[in-house]
């Protein structure tokens, strides 16, 4: 039985053409700055994001945490959305590694407002922790792959900058936001100071993310990456996958969005399920009956479909399904069919 893996867009495997590009990559020692393929990827990423420079990092988590470390001083507060990846799924590393304190803002569909930023930034009073950074997550994972409208990012950036506070964008899936809106990623950043985006999600690479910002920022980011043990040597093998993906896998992200919409539409009428139309490639299924997400996921697994329970608590009622390169229309239709069967099954 061929598995349909909808747990995440991180599960993609490199295509034969991507593997061929990796095998053919020119390499050198990147810690000496001598890996031409990595240089080419970093240049391309910086151009794509409208930034001066970029740094190849092993993961989105490392990219985000380096950004937090470079933008802040220990003791600072960081304004970020309450269910954001940096706060919820990065092991509390902002506190442990950078010594900063999260100041969560509750957003709607993962987006907070400029007003919330203005109200949360600490005044310059000697006994208050200074606000060191604002983080925006676009698309917002836990909210269901929702897109921050450009105007909202622009207003948040303006509010932060008016207080002298930089803005970092966790753009793990910013190219999905680009595909969904038709607005270039560099425009969606709306003057933010740094962005991290992932190659190993919808773009289908085996490893890697890019952290982009000013030349000065990337210079300090490179030092922090090395301090974390993230200096890599003949990493052009991986960078070649990134170059290949940026050339061949960006446009097709729109296909994943169509598949996500089809999945949501097919499931739409089912009793016991509530679904909002997905904006990008993440579909959140909310179970309205008495059944736990883990039970439904276990039943689906037995029938060859992998999906993840989402949200907080042991009796979670939400299931996340993510479309990607390795999921075609037929798989999505089969999934919808199996979910319908399982929700109608006795005991559900
Ligand atoms: N997200 C993963 C899991 O960690 C939840 C997933 O399957 O969606 N920012 C955002 C918005 C992310 O969704 C992720 C990964 C990261 C950062 C971290 O990237 P990695 O996994 O490369 O460290």
Descriptive overview:
By secondary structure, the protein is of the alpha/beta class. It has two domains: 14-248, Type I PLP-dependent aspartate aminotransferase-like (Major domain) (Aspartate Aminotransferase, domain 2), CATH 3.40.640.10; 252-343, Aspartate Aminotransferase, domain 1 (Alpha-Beta Complex), CATH 3.90.1150. The chain contains 14 helices and 13 strands. The protein has helices spanning 16-23, 36-49, 60-71, 85-88, 93-98, 114-120, 150-162, 174-181, 185-188, 215-227, 236-248, 253-268, 293-302, 329-344; strands spanning 4-5, 53-57, 77-81, 101-105, 131-137, 167-170, 194-198, 209-213, 273-275, 282-287, 305-306, 308-310, 318-322. It has a seven-stranded mixed sheet, sandwiched between helices. The chain has a four-stranded antiparallel sheet with strand order 9-10-13-12. A two-stranded parallel sheet has the order 1-11. Strand 12 (308-310) and strand 13 (318-322) form a beta hairpin. The longest helix is centred in the C-terminal third of the chain and has 16 residues, at 253-268. The mean pLDDT is 96. Ligand TLP binds next to helix 3. Ligand TLP is lined by residues 8, 10, 59-61, 64, 85, 89, 137, 141, 170, 172, 198, 200, 209.
């Amino acid at each position: 039985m061929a598995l349909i893996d909808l747990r995440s867009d991180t599960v993609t495997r490199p295509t034969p053409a991507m593997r061929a590009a990796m095998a053919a990559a020119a390499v050198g020692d990147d810690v000496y700055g001598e890996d031409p393929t990595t240089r080419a990827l970093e240049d391309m990423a910086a151009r794509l994001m409208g930034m001066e420079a970029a740094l190849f990092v092993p993961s989105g988590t490392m990219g985000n945490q380096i950004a937090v470390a470079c933008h802040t001083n220990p003791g600072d507060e960081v304004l970020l959305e309450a269910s954001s990846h940096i706060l919820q799924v990065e092991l509390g590393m902002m506190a442990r590694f950078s010594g900063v304190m999260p100041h969560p803002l509750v957003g709607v569909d993962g987006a907070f407002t400029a007003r919330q930023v203005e109200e949360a930034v600490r005044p310059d009073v000697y006994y208050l922790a200074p606000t060191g950074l604002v983080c925006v997550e676009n698309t917002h994972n836990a909210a269901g792959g929702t897109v921050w409208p450009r105007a909202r990012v622009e207003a948040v950036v303006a509010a932060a900058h008016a207080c002298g506070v930089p803005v970092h964008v966790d753009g793990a899936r910013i190219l999905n936001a680009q595909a969904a809106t038709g607005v270039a990623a560099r425009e969606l950043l709306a003057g933010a100071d740094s962005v991290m985006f992932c190659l190993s999600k919808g773009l289908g690479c085996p490893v890697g993310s890019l952290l982009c910002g000013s030349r000065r920022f990337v210079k300090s980011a490179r030092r922090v990456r090395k301090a974390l043990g993230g200096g890599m040597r003949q990493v052009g093998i991986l960078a070649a996958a990134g170059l290949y993906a940026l050339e061949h896998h960006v446009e097709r992200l729109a296909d994943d969005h169509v598949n996500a919409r089809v999945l949501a539409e097919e499931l739409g009428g089912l009793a016991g399920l509530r679904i909002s139309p997905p904006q990008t490639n993440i579909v959140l299924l909310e179970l309205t009956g008495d059944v736990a997400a883990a039970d439904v996921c276990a039943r689906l697994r037995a029938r060859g479909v992998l999906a993840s329970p989402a949200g907080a608590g042991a009796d979670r009622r939400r299931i996340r399904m993510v479309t990607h390169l390795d999921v075609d229309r037929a798989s999505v239709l089969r999934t919808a069919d199996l979910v319908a069967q399982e929700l109608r099954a006795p005991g559900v």
